[in-house]
UniProtKB/TrEMBL annotation:
It comes from the Eukaryota. The keyword Transmembrane applies. It comes from Dovyalis caffra. Pfam families: Mito_carr. Solcar repeats lie at residues 2-91, 109-216, 231-322. This is Peroxisomal nicotinamide adenine dinucleotide carrier. Its main location: membrane. It is found in: Membrane. The lineage of its organism: Eukaryota, Viridiplantae, Streptophyta, Embryophyta, Tracheophyta. Residues 143-155 have a biased composition (Polar residues). Residues 143-168 are annotated as: Disordered. GO terms for cellular component: membrane.
Length: 340
C-alpha cells in the first residue's frame, strides 16, 4: 500500500469522526452565515441559544440535516485531499533532494513549497467535491418555513403525495439535488466554486502552519531527547488547533460569501437577498450589512473548525502510525514464514 493511499484513507477516517462530533455546530454556523436579515435592531441569538431554538421549533433531527451527504463529502474531500497532498509532497521532497545534490538548499521542503503543495491538493479537492457541499449547504439551511419561496417541481410532486396538506414534505438529499437542478441546472452544483477555490488558502495556510510548527517541535525534541523526534497525540491535537485557528481568522469572510451563494436564492421579494455571483454578493453585503456581515457566526466557526481540525489531525496521525505498523509487522511475518 502506497504512502499516499495510507494518508488518504487515514484522512478520510479522521475527517468522518471529526464531522460526527462537530456537525451540530456546523449546521448552526451555516445558518448564521446565511442569515440575510439586514435589520440591525434584530436581537442575535448565541450559538447555544440558536441550537436550542432549532431543537424546540424543528426537532433534534434538524441539527443533523444533511449529515449523510456531509459524511460522504467529508470522506471524499479528506481522502482526495490527503491522497493528492502526499503525492505532491513526495514530488516536492524529491525536487528538494535533487536541488541539494546540485548544491542548492538543505534538501528540505521550504514554507513556500509547502504552501504550493497544499494549494494544489486543495484545488483538486474543490473541483471534484464541490457538488456534494452545495447539497449539504442546502440541507443545513432548509427550515420548515422555507417553503414560502416558489416551490420546485419536485416539491409539488411530494406535496401531492403528502397525507397532510398542511405538513411540509420531508426534505432529503434527493429533494435538495432536484431543487438545485431545477433552479440552476448542472452548473448549480458548482455554485460558490470561485470563492471556494480562493478558500483553498485556508487549508493551505493551515498545513503550512502545521508543518512548520511540527518541524520546529521535532527539531527541538531531537535536541532535548538525543534524536527522538516522536510527538504525542495531544501535541498533534494542539498543533492542529493552532494551525486551524490562524487560517480561519484570515479567510472567514470568503467562507460566508461561499455559503450565501450555495444556499437557496430568494428570487422573489427583496432583491438585497438575491446574489447573482461572487462579486454581486460581496457588493450587496458591503452595502446593506457592512463589514460585520462578513463575520457572522465567526465565534461558532472558530469553535467548530478548530475542534474538528484538532480531532482530524490527531486521529489521522494515529491511523497512519497504526497502518504503517501493521504493514511492517505483516511484511516481517511474511518474511519469517517464507522458506529458506
Amino acid at each position: 500500500m502506497s504512502d499516499a493511499l495510507i494518508n488518504g484513507l487515514a484522512g478520510a477516517g479522521g475527517g468522518i469522526i471529526a464531522q460526527l462530533i462537530t456537525y451540530p455546530l456546523q449546521t448552526v454556523n451555516t445558518r448564521q452565515q446565511t442569515e440575510r436579515d439586514v435589520k440591525k435592531e434584530k436581537r442575535k441569538h448565541g450559538t447555544i441559544e440558536q441550537m436550542c431554538q432549532v431543537v424546540k421549533n424543528e426537532g433534534w433531527g434538524r441539527l443533523y440535516s444533511g449529515l449523510a451527504p456531509s459524511v460522504v463529502g467529508t470522506a471524499c474531500s479528506q481522502g482526495v485531499y490527503y491522497y493528492f497532498y502526499q503525492i505532491f509532497r513526495d514530488r516536492a521532497e524529491a525536487i528538494a533532494r535533487e536541488h541539494k545534490r546540485n548544491g542548492i538548499g538543505d534538501g528540505s521542503v521550504g514554507m513556500l513549497s509547502s504552501l504550493l503543495v497544499a494549494a494544489l491538493a486543495g484545488c483538486t479537492n474543490v473541483l471534484l467535491t464541490n457538488p456534494i457541499w452545495v447539497v449539504v449547504t442546502r440541507m443545513q439551511t432548509h427550515t420548515k418555513n422555507s417553503k414560502k419561496s416558489q416551490p420546485s417541481r419536485s416539491s409539488i410532486a411530494l406535496d401531492e403525495k403528502s397525507l397532510d396538506p398542511m405538513e411540509p414534505p420531508p426534505y432529503g438529499t434527493g429533494h435538495a439535488i432536484q431543487e438545485l437542478y431545477d433552479e440552476a441546472g448542472i452548473g448549480g452544483f458548482w455554485k460558490g466554486v470561485f470563492p471556494t477555490l480562493i478558500m483553498v488558502s485556508n487549508p493551505s495556510m493551515q498545513f503550512m502552519l502545521y508543518e512548520t510548527m511540527l518541524k520546529k517541535l521535532k527539531t527541538k525534541r531531537a535536541l532535548v531527547k538525543k534524536g527522538d523526534t516522536g510527538v504525542t497525540a495531544l501535541e498533534i491535537f494542539l498543533l492542529g488547533a493552532l494551525a486551524k485557528l490562524g487560517a480561519t481568522v484570515v479567510t472567514y469572510p470568503l467562507l460566508v460569501v461561499k455559503s450565501r451563494l450555495q444556499a437557496k436564492q430568494i428570487t422573489t421579494g427583496d432583491k438585497r437577498h438575491n446574489y447573482k455571483g461572487t462579486l454581486d454578493a460581496i457588493l450587496k453585503m458591503i452595502r446593506y450589512e457592512g463589514l460585520h456581515g462578513f463575520y457572522k457566526g465567526m465565534s461558532t466557526k472558530i469553535v467548530q473548525s478548530v475542534l474538528a481540525a484538532a480531532v482530524l489531525f490527531m486521529i489521522k496521525e494515529e491511523l497512519v502510525k497504526g497502518a504503517r505498523l501493521l504493514l511492517t509487522k505483516g511484511g516481517a511475518s511474511i518474511r519469517k514464514t517464507r522458506p529458506a
